[in-house]
Records
---
Amino acid sequence: MESLIILGSQWGDEGKGKIVDLLAPEYDYVVRYQGGSNAGHTVIVGNKKYTLHLIPSGILHQGKKNVITNGVVISLEELLKEMESVKEVSGDFEGKLFISERSHIVFPYHKILDSLSEKSKGKDKVGTTLKGIGPAYMAKYARTGIRMVDLFDPPYFKHRLENAMNEAKEISEKIYGEKFTLDLNQLYDETLRNFEKIAPLVTDTSLLLHNALMDGKKVLFEGAQGTMLDVDMGTYPYVTSSNASALGICNGTGVAPKHIGKAKVYGVSKAYVTRVGEGPFPTELKDGDGIKLREEGHEFGSTTGRPRRCGWLDLVALRFACRINGIDGLIITKLDVLDHFDKIKVCVAYEYEGKEIRDFPASLKILEKCKPIYKELKGWDKNTQGLKDINELPEEAWEFIKVIEEETGSKVVMLSTGPERTEYTWVDKV
């Protein structure tokens, strides 16, 4: 079996964690390649719910090697908390969890700067999770960041930490007018104490993955957030701070493009669309249908608890995601949420200034003026939750799938019909 990329093809929260959990048994390595603790994968196993923000979902399976690569920014406190939450399943982490020595670290001052920046923007705020992810990536590209490898050299680490904290203090006090109270020595000591607990897991993950692929090992790459939140290709500036599409895999892992290019790509999409945070959302519903989608789909953020904005499936955006990711197959999640709608709509194009457009625009000024052009389908009013036999799928649901395939040019390969591990069915495995 080839390696596989699983990524979100909407604005995140598509149910990627469950899909990675389902497919992980078929792979040797499960790899997280971007983002930070601003992302959350929720996996339900029996009556136990696991919310993973940094650790790949493969940690819930025995015998899998889980890799957090250089493209991920890591809060040590949150990583340790998460490790504790899955310890009963994973046991000892050595040989199971590998952390890139090149990963950048999220510090408390990044969270302070994140909060101050959002507050200063007022109505133009991005709607971040306030986890410090954006400022950590900013430090990375400003060359003032601190990497895991730096912590193996305490004097060097302290020098860089002092410089970074002086800069954060200047920004806090002189730009935002807020008192900066973090103590250098306290943060230095606390960081090294935390690092000591994970130091044996820190390694050259670029080399690890290169060797694995050369040895014919099967690697599953899991993305966080979704394509429409990609910092380059998404609805900028209402995006995350990393490449959440397949375009981020090479720089996020240190694996050569010719090796990544051999992998298949599955895009995960809900049967409708949700979005957390600010920004244009052409198919957003603010009526009873939107409320029904939120309540039926339990649409509240796994990281923040915030209610998600909900709308009908946007095939203009999904068509765009299929193109830039080179998606080989679509996995449609939460099909069961649509079970009891009389009519179901899918957006097949936008209307902008009296003209029909079928390609997703880069300009947010254009996007916010776009009106969805819908194709209306008959609902199936039958229970599909837990459906395992594809032959039992209602005819109207088949029509829904057919429209998705025709409009995106990508095959639907799997349906997820509920939150449990067992609630899914293959449609056409490619």
Note: The chain is about 35% helix and 20% strand.
---
Amino acid sequence: MIEMPPLQFAQTNGIRMGYYEAGPKTDKPPLVLCHGWPELAFSWRHQIKALGEAGIRVIAPDQRGYGATDRPEPVEAYDIEQLTGDLVGLLDHLDIEKAIFVGHDWGGFVVWQMPLRHLDRVAGVVGINTPHMVRAPADPIEIFRKRFGDQMYIVQFQDPTHGPDKIFAGRVEQTFDAFMRKPMPRPVEKPSEPAAAGIGASPKTNLAFPQVIAAYDAKLDPRTPILSADEKKVFVDTFGRTGFTGGINWYRNMTRNWRRSADLDHTVRAPSLMIMAENDVVLPPSSADGMEKIIPDLEKYLVRDSGHWTQQEKPEEVSAKLIEWRRKRFG
């Protein structure tokens, strides 16, 4: 298993944030790697090593609600203003003027918001699987409910009383056994409707993740795991300690984020790279169609034969693309 650099801490935006750093401190602009759900800075272990060895400064935090970072109680403490504010505070702590923000899954939603809210701190943006989109025409939770039904995981996450947090917390190893696998080969299927608020999955896709986990038996799963036993233990031990509520609270702010973004210009005015994964069921390459209209300086790159966990499934290819794009655009 690839070892992580030493864990460090920063006081930022009212919380203590754990983060990992590699590469020379003199390198500019550094890359800040932002993970998704249910993940950790550890999800970037391959990129931290490769970028650092390439002479590029790289910083990977456990984000608010995860791992070594604080987990505030109020749900509204996890809105997009707080999540982007955490990253600004991390730059302040490290005395960094600007960074390239790289985000996968939920981290992607956060990094695409950085140039909309804190453009003076953004040198560039890289989205991995997660596209940048214009503001949804209606509350995204209602869009999800209409398109996928009440069992869709993001819809379920809005109601903590029915226990999606407890389902995952009571089955931590099952959760990572089920999620962290390569997808089965499948025919390419474009969604029958436009991508809904960043989710491009077909309405036929089973997105009732709490029920999937509750019924899951790893012995019956033919898919290939992407984690070694030691790597899986890092996730299981960490989430066994922290639970899943902090990360799920990010989803519980989607309506709040949508309401509070009405006056934002959604044009990204920074050099940008969109890395897409060919076989991601939830965020397929087609969900990135049209990004060029709201990102004037955009390059797209497709990772073949990868599912959702792209930086862990295809670590060498993702690392090589990040290094190539960083050097091409920033020297």
Note: The chain has a mean pLDDT of 94.
---
Amino acid sequence: MDLDRKLAILADAAKYDASCSSSGTERRDSRGGAGMGSTEGMGICHSYAPDGRCISLLKILLTNHCQYDCLYCVNRASSNVPRARFQVEEVVALTLDFYRRNVIEGLFLSSGIVKSPDFTMEQVVRVAQTLREEHDFRGYIHLKTIPDASEELLRRAGLYADRLSINVELPTDQGLKALAPEKDTAAIHRSMGRLKLHIDDAKAERRAVAEAPIRVLPGAATRPARPPRFAPAGQSTQMIIGADASDDRSILRSSAALYGRFRMRRVYYSAFSPIPDASRALPLKSPPLVREHRLYQADWLMRFYGFEHDEIVDDGTGLLRLDVDPKLAWALAHPERFPVDLNVAPRELLLRVPGLGVGSVDKLLAARGTRRLRAEDLRQLKLPTRKVMPFVIVDGHQPRQADLLGALPRSAPDAAAASASASASASASVAMPAIQMGLF
């Protein structure tokens, strides 16, 4: 099979993996003539980093052959799809070639499982090792790791990759047993725990070296070299939404546990897509994409706004509202907490006001250090006053009960449709195979 055909198959096969953000690592570049590649910069984009930068990543599978038969996976062993497999040297050559042509800024590499987890993981690690050691490639590398691979291979992977990820696959252990019985939640968590320990140990070693005194006396031992960083962008994971019966409350509970136990940088949510020749155990259609969008918003509330997972979905349905965002839904469900006086409220309470983001709260705290806030100050700070004003008190403004109507979206059906349309457009942009984007 020629290289173009392999690329078409394996770029398309990788589109279902959403966890390819490239933020959070150290800055490296090849300015000054040293090495090749960069962890920053602009290009023809495959994805957006969480901080808003457009990042172009060559996103492919090493192979879509797989010995596992997970019911939700288009590349499962029993699936009737075209198969292909790259050699290590082919992935290296493609990465370097596309970088030189200013098409990509880095590599996202995953793989089906062939022969054994260790055999597959060794091939994946060899790609990153060859790029780093033989070609001095300094761009971003994200490797999908195999849960059952040996600890030594996981350690080697972290020395060459900026980020490592292990997919938890489904929100609950029951769902994994039902749809992917060959996979084991305990094995996945063990690998996550090993990666966390390696990341913590590497940080501790670098901190100890940085704090060591510099010896300048004659005959004194030289200061030790800084140890290499281990996966400086940390680890992430992905779970499929809508393939099993897990509700949003259990999904957020699982995410909170992953953040707490393994200090995940990100948990990605991927809406289930119906696949050819699907099992009867799977739903016949995808969940609404706006549900995936709401889960990302709820995830943001847990990570940056001080919300606990069990208070975001606290009604009897176990599901997030689709017509309004989770923060507004929480505010509407807790009228006793509002209005909030912007001139005296602590930061943690300001973060719960609909329409106020982390940056906006920091601006408000800085502004009120010089004088009391007024309604016109919020407009000067370019805050979304239509969202904010029904929930706050400032000098010259006291909200009325009727103001809450102004905080609601146009109408539930219209808002849900608009969000679904936006999510569908974004997902289509990320999921579109690179071969269809005219890059190759």
Note: Residues 185-211 form the longest helix (27 residues).
